[in-house]
Amino acid sequence: MTSALYDSFIADYYDESPLVQRRLQDVAFYREAAREYGDPVLELGCGTGRVTMALAEAGKRVTGLDLSERMLERAVQKRAALRVESRERVHLMQGDMTRFDLGEKFRLIIIPFRAFHHLLEVRQQMDCLECARKHLTPGGRLVLDVFQTDAERMHDPVHQRESLVAEYKTQDGREVRISERVKAFHRAEQRNDVEMIFTVVHPGGRKERLVFAWTLRYFFRYEIEHLLARCGFHVAALYGNFDWTPLRDESPEMIFVAEG
Fold it and tell me: With contact defined as beta carbons under 8 Å apart, do 39 and 61 qualify?
């Protein structure tokens, strides 16, 4: 995972995208997790601070770590807009979630919105989890969110055709159409090369086509459980969505609550 990925144009479109705006349930989930397990909270892959700021507003001390300077710039702007007491609870820092040493321990560590899918190699995944475990207080919890893999998206050529995901208008008047496609399947490596295409019409009529391309690593339930076990964690709970329902065949998420 490189900072250049999110230091691209995507930082300018991230917060207003309906794909992000729709994820209200996860914020409520993380608020409840912080209420139950306590703070301070460490968020790995905090991005623009969507979850970070919500936890601070809920009265929790939270550190947000991300590799992307441009995403963190957005987070800094959001922090500045908070009330003073909430603002003082937020600490933001640039760093790699596979190798960090903050000199502090946390009651709760969260890896929201599928940031873990950017870790392509097993060694990277274990480095991240081992770092997290070193930063947990005794009895602390790690909450890891990945999507439940849909077997069709691992091989069906239909997903290689560009398909509409969302259309919206930004506050400054840009008309945005988001579509996506799988550029290539790599089943032996459990990876898909993915493209998210932004077709933008600017005020005044100028048009541009922007492509956000990345490689996504997908996971299966027991693979994650084994990764966690190899890194010294015990799975305390597993949910299939942010309404705390159990994992089922049709569940969109796999949300692991692990104890170090």
Answer: yes
* Cα→Cα distances 134→37, 41, 102, 142, Å: 17, 14, 10, 11
Question: Is the distance from CB of 184 to CB of 192 less than 8 angstroms?
Answer: yes
Question: What is the DSSP code string of 181-220?
Answer: EEEEEEGGGTEEEEEEEEEEE-TTS-EEEEEEEEEEE---
For residue 251, the 8-state DSSP code is -
List the structure tokens of 116.
């873990």
99: β partners? 96
Helices 50-57, 69-80: inter-axial angle, 10-degree rounding: 30
Domains and CATH numbers, the chain: 3-149+219-259 (3.40.50.150), 151-217 (2.20.25)
- Residue 170 Cα to chain centre, angstroms: 22
Q: Which residues of 16-113 form beta strands (DSSP E)?
A: 41-44, 62-66, 90-94, 106-111
pTM, rounded to two decimals = 0.94
Quote helix, strand, coil % in the chain, to nearest 5: 35, 35, 30
Q: What's the rounded Cα separation, in Å, for the pair 113 and 107?
A: 20
Tell me: the pLDDT tens digits for 49-96? 999 999 999 999 999 999 999 999 999 999 999 999 999 999 999 999
